[in-house]
Design a protein that fits this description.
Layout lengths: L1 E4 L5 H8 L1 H19 L16 H20 L2 E2 L9 E4 L3 H10 L8 E2 L3 H16 L7 H32 L6 H10 L15 H10 L2 H5 L5 E3 L1
Antiparallel strand pairs: 1-3, 2-4, 3-5
Helix pairs in contact: 1-2, 2-5, 3-4, 3-5, 6-8
């Protein structure tokens, strides 16, 4: 986990958040919104064309991993703050970031952590948005992929089960930061609309890439997200 006292963020990190970070978040937000809005026209697109939903997240992952790699290599080692510390922002690492830290920074002593820097923050945000976008529900890219792979009935079942599990997780794991996301998904509708041709089949390479892309949320999404102390 990368921790940083909220009031002690470096000038470089604050400047990145105001400039390049703001542009990245704005671009990603507009991109996701446009996918959801234009997704209502999915009836005019064949089922096989929905497979293209995996291309964006895969491209995002290809960009986010090198940025995260450099951020981890350049991050300073700092002792973890005590649990009683106040004004602390904790950005919980997704699985892939945890493994990259173990691989790239064997010099980090047990019980110590990496300090957040602009590159690591950029990679973390990219991982988070990519993981969210590949959730197998609604008109997110993950919803497009499961619809293309499994067809309407099974994709709708997967989406509804996933929504139920997500609600239970938010309630019992006290992960309230995802509440707004859940509300938006419920309002938009958890299931994918029908396409013009649900009988279209995917090729074997498309199926392989599609099934592999379903691992992206497990790699990139931090279930606890961000917590504040």
């Amino acid at each position: 986990t990368c921790r940083r006292p909220s009031a002690l963020m470096s000038y470089q990190s604050v400047n990145w958040l105001k400039t390049d970070g703001a542009k990245l978040l704005k671009f990603q937000s507009v991109s996701q919104a446009s996918r959801i809005i234009t997704g209502s026209a999915a009836q005019t697109v064949g089922r096989a064309s929905r497979f293209r939903g995996s291309s964006g997240p895969i491209a995002g992952l290809i960009v986010a991993i090198p940025i995260t790699w450099l951020g981890i290599q350049q991050a300073a080692v700092a002792p973890p703050l005590p649990p009683t510390a106040k004004g602390v922002t904790i950005m919980h690492d997704p699985w892939i970031v945890q493994e990259l830290i173990v691989y790239l920074r064997p010099d980090v002593p047990a019980g110590q952590e990496l300090q957040l820097n602009p590159l690591l923050l950029a990679g973390w945000v990219g991982m988070l948005i990519t993981g969210l976008n590949m959730m197998p529900i609604s008109q997110l890219d993950g919803g497009h992929v499961i619809y293309a792979l499994f067809g309407r009935r099974r994709a709708h079942l997967i989406a509804k089960v996933f929504l139920l599990v997500a609600i239970l997780y938010v309630v019992f794991a006290n992960a309230s930061m995802w509440t707004l996301m859940l509300i938006l998904v419920i309002l938009i509708g958890p299931t994918h609309p029908p396409t013009a041709d649900d009988s279209a089949e995917l090729s074997l390479p498309q199926k392989i890439v599609g099934y592999a892309s379903l691992a992206i949320p497990f790699l990139c999404f931090p279930p606890q997200g961000i917590t504040f102390q």
